Amino acid sequence: ERDLSSHEAGIGPHIAMAQNAERDPATSEYQRLVEEFGLERANDPSIHAPDAEGHPARSSASDEQVAAHEHICTLAASRVHKLPFENGLVENWAAKQVDGLKLLDAMFAAWLPLVGAPLLVHNGPAPSPEEVAKNVKSHLYTIVLATVACPAWRLNWIASVMMQVISNYRACHILQLVSVKGGANTDCEIRYIEEAMRLMGFTIKQFRAPMATSERPNCLWWQWKLPRDGAENYAVNLYQYETIRDLDSRQTSFDLRASEKTAVVPNLRRVAVVSMPKDDVNGDSHEKFNE
User: Fold this and answer.
1) How many CB atoms are closer than 10 A to CB 21?
2) Before 113, cis peptide (omega within 30)?
3) What DSSP state is assigned to residue 254?
4) Which DSSP helix (H) or strand (E) runs through 252?
5) Exposed, middle or buried: residue 285 (CB in 10 Å: 0-12, 13-18, 19+)?
6) Which of 225, 233, 240, 265 is most buried, judging by how many CB atoms fall within 10 Å of its CB?
7) pLDDT mean over 245-274
8) φ and ψ at 230, to 5 degrees?
9) pLDDT higher than 70, residue 38
């Protein structure tokens, strides 16, 4: 399922295709999804766009977000579609896992909203720089499922990415989500994160922003922030590299760097690899990253 047929088109053109399908009344499958899930704004980048003065769009505790706390996974997943469309029909990414999404909804509803949740408190002496470096490296996470092909892998992935964001709120100032572009499914994973972060009430600071080659070559950047009482804001960065070669050891080492500001809870730094194809557009295996 992780084919590369849509690699060159990129996420942006895919969104435009979705918008064209929305305007086509002949797309009956999309109309069904609109009626069932309320998808009037599905795949619409304008909901994330800066305002008229150029400021990033701000998320607030809207009625939509309050409702999303009880249906967070179902609502976010219902706005994710595999692209390009086949035979002009819209394919919802997780349409066959509705029952499983409802179970995830029930679980995560107990932990939302995040704002106001009690933060972890550091006790004891400050760690040494070496201890901080070892701690960050030993907590390098991954939620990439690339060994066994089962239809409900989406549910495991959704549960894992939600858990990363929710659990680290109490302990982290910075959460780095790292990814490499693949085919339609990796695009859908990124789309899910876009929707879920907005519905959880995060403020959007960066959205699909190309990064300078000197910083992160061939890389798009997203950033969301959420305030925390008595601590630094919770900042979640998502990076999507074009190829596995672009995500080299220098980039990973930089993400895992130790700093005094992020040495202890509740202001830790954590890094997670959240999306990566088995083989990228160059034919390089994900094993290249492991090496």
Assistant:
1) 20
2) yes
3) H
4) helix 249-255
5) middle
6) 240
7) 93
8) 75, 15
9) no
Q: What single-letter amino acid sits at 52?
A: A
CA distances from 49 to 77, 98, 135 (A): 20, 29, 37
Give me the amino acid identity at 185. Answer: N
Token pair listed for 243 = 């190829």
pLDDT for 4-20, tens place per residue? 333 333 333 333 333 33
pLDDT bucket at 141, cuts 50 / 70 / 90: very high
Q: Among all chains, which residue has been given the structure tokens 């929710």?
A: 166
Asked whether the beta carbons of 75 and 68 are under 8 A apart, the reply is: yes
Place of tokens 């400050």: 126
For the chain, the maximum distance between any two Cα atoms, rounded to a whole number of angstroms, is 66
The pTM is what? 0.79
CA angle 143-145-150, nearest 5°?
Answer: 135
The Cα–Cα gap between 79 and 271 comes to 26
Question: Does residue 223 contact residue 237 with C-beta atoms inside 8 Å?
Answer: yes
The terminus-to-terminus CA distance of the chain in angstroms comes to 24
- Decide: 119 and 171 in contact? Cβ < 8 Å: yes
Please give the full DSSP string across 218-249, using - where no structure is assigned: TEEEEEEEE--TTS--EEEEEEEESSTTTS-H
